[in-house]
């Protein structure tokens, strides 16, 4: 059962400062709850607390950090349905997808608990020449310090978890700004963190207005900024971040190649999932479907029928596959792109209609590369299908994008698979499946406008720690 009012968490403690942020059900616009909004002064206090608590956090033994993460895993399991219902209501995420995200939240914290006790270093020989005889080196990884995290609306639990969990494992204090449209999930996590033995002040979770959140980026007491969101915002934050390292996950325009000889029934099933799960609001949602000419007509027919069969409606309904987009504004934007493409010669094979925040699952063909639905990130339930005759040319077309997060390749040719891995300008190539596939311990991130750095607990820990060297001289 969701509460009617949620505090923010400042220096590990709940603060009911106000009821300024209204959180609404994205399907019916009913008021779900009110949430306290943090001020610039609150953020400053949170940073000071994180800075003060860093010494105690660094000194926390790895088995205690592991125990804290394991406590969270146990409590997430106990509050599983509450977390799923929060996602369903505040994000408009279909309930089956919401439960899937809670499962991933649990996985992410479990992985972090495992990694907390295996942050290794290395012994290295230094006697590479006569002058270094008698010297040896050792390095270890130490926490980078207080971290700043900004998480998005589309995976309010798991993308926050990909910042919080490795920070705890690494021994870093942190402050987190959840998306104002979907703050409840992160605040439930904060409730659970407050039950643990984290040092006082080690964390703050602070919903706040974007225009009051500059300290998350600019304050030099923060030693790392990790942001997930839009490219325009992310690159602008990087400019303002000063000397601190920055990790950015900024979205994509994911392509999926269906090569000759592919099992179409299998590919269609996976592409439908990849393009339209949680209404396409995923950075690795399938947007461009490229099918070999020998399979194109059959693929088009099967995909069109499958898209038309998707159930759209209340995300709380167990049968719903397509729920609302995050807002009417976003639905209007993407619907406008569809209409503009159609006016310029594209053909709508399925969907194309909008009612408020509800945009039908839409499949287009005859799309050209100057159209927004081709060259921008749709971030909604819209995909385009085209055909190719030459595999190498198809790889070039995948690269014809400012983004480079992940790509999917359906092929039975191992040489083509390796060529795709070599040639594609993306952070990850998924063979035999859609680019939308992810498991939470793999290195995940992009190139070009898709961002900097990698998520996945072990790889996030690398960003949240620094190498520290010791040189030992043995006198003769």
UniProtKB/TrEMBL annotation:
One example GO MF annotation: lactaldehyde dehydrogenase (NAD+) activity
Entry keywords, A to Z: Oxidoreductase
Location of the Aldehyde dehydrogenase domain: 19-468
Annotated SUPFAM superfamilies: ALDH-like
Active-site residues from the entry: 249
Segments traversing the membrane: none
Pfam families found in the cross-reference section: Aldedh
Family: Belongs to the aldehyde dehydrogenase family.
Protein name (Swiss-Prot/TrEMBL): Aldehyde dehydrogenase family protein
Source organism of the structure: Maribrevibacterium harenarium
Lineage start: Bacteria, Pseudomonadati, Pseudomonadota, Gammaproteobacteria, Oceanospirillales
């Amino acid at each position: 059962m969701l509460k009617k009012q949620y505090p923010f968490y400042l220096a590990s403690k709940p603060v009911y400062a106000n009821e300024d942020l209204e959180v609404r059900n994205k399907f019916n616009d009913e008021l779900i709850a009110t949430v306290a909004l943090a001020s610039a002064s609150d953020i400053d206090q949170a940073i000071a607390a994180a800075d003060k608590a860093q010494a105690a956090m660094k000194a926390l033994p790895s088995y205690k950090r592991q125990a804290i993460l394991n406590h969270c895993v146990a409590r997430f399991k106990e509050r599983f349905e509450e977390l799923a219902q929060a996602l369903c209501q505040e994000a408009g995420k279909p309930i089956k997808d919401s439960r899937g995200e809670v499962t991933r939240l649990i996985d992410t914290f479990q992985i972090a608990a495992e990694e907390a006790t295996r942050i290794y270093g290395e012994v290295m020989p230094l006697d590479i020449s006569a002058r270094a005889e008698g010297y040896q080196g050792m390095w270890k990884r130490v926490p980078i310090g207080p971290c700043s995290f900004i998480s998005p609306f589309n995976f309010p639990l798991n993308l926050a978890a990909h910042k919080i969990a490795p920070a705890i494992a690494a021994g870093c204090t942190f402050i987190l700004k959840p998306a104002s449209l979907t703050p409840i999930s992160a605040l439930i996590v904060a409730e659970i963190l407050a039950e643990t033995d984290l040092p006082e002040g080690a964390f703050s979770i602070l919903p706040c207005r974007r225009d009051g959140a500059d300290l998350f980026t600019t304050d030099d007491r923060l030693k790392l900024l990790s942001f997930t969101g839009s490219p325009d915002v992310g690159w602008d934050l990087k400019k303002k971040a000063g000397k601190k390292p920055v990790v950015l996950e900024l979205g994509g325009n994911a392509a999926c190649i269906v090569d000759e000889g592919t099992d179409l029934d299998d590919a269609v099933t996976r592409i439908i999932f990849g393009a339209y799960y949680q209404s396409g609001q995923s950075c690795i949602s399938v947007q461009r479907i490229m099918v070999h000419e020998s399979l194109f007509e059959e693929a088009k027919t099967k995909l069109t029928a499958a898209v038309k069969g998707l159930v759209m409606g209340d995300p709380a309904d167990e049968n719903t596959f397509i729920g609302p987009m995050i807002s009417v504004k976003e639905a209007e934007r993407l619907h406008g792109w569809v209409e503009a493409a159609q006016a310029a010669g594209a053909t709508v094979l399925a969907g194309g209609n909008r009612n408020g925040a509800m945009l039908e699952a839409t499949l287009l063909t005859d799309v050209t590369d100057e159209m927004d639905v081709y060259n921008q990130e749709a971030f909604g339930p819209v995909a385009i299908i085209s055909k190719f005759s030459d595999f190498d040319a198809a790889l070039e077309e995948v690269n014809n994008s400012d983004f480079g997060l992940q790509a999917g390749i359906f092929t039975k040719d191992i040489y083509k698979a390796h060529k795709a891995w070599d040639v594609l300008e993306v952070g990850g190539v998924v063979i035999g499946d859609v680019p939308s596939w992810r498991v939470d311990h793999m290195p995940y991130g992009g190139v070009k406008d898709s961002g900097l750095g990698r998520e996945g607990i072990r790889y996030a820990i690398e960003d949240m720690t620094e190498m520290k060297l010791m040189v030992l001289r043995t006198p003769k």
